[in-house]
Specification:
Layout (H helix, E strand, L loop, with lengths): L2 H15 L17 E6 L4 E6 L11 H11 L6 E6 L12 H6 L4
Parallel strand pairs: 2-3
Antiparallel strand pairs: 1-2
Length: 106
């Protein structure tokens, strides 16, 4: 795989992430700033490093599985692993301008 092909797969993964919404906030998880990084290996395996709005998030168990399933539905992706981290801790400053506008914070 070329670097460009891997980048295109990464862009498709981001497209999928933008269809997944936080259940408590009407903004997708990507614009919300919950996705810290998306990696795609030469073997077309994806790894997503993300956080949650809080360690007590009600979807802490189900959201990573939902993300893995949706990303694996891309024909270019063989496998997907979601790793949750709380370092750095999520703050509203991590939200995109679009998300802040949507929530009336601008």
């Amino acid at each position: 795989m070329t670097e460009k092909e891997l980048e295109e797969i990464g862009d498709k993964i981001v497209g999928v992430l933008k269809t997944i919404y936080d259940p408590e906030i009407p903004v997708d998880i990507y614009e919300l700033g919950l996705i810290y990084d998306v990696f795609v290996s030469e073997e077309n395996n994806a790894k997503i490093l993300m956080t949650l709005t809080s360690p007590n998030c009600p979807v802490a168990e189900s959201l990573p599985l939902d993300i893995e399933e949706k990303v694996k539905s891309l024909k270019e992706v063989n496998a997907c692993e979601v790793e949750i981290t709380f370092d750095p801790t999520w703050t509203s400053e991590m939200m995109s301008e679009e998300a802040k506008l949507e929530l009336g914070m601008l």
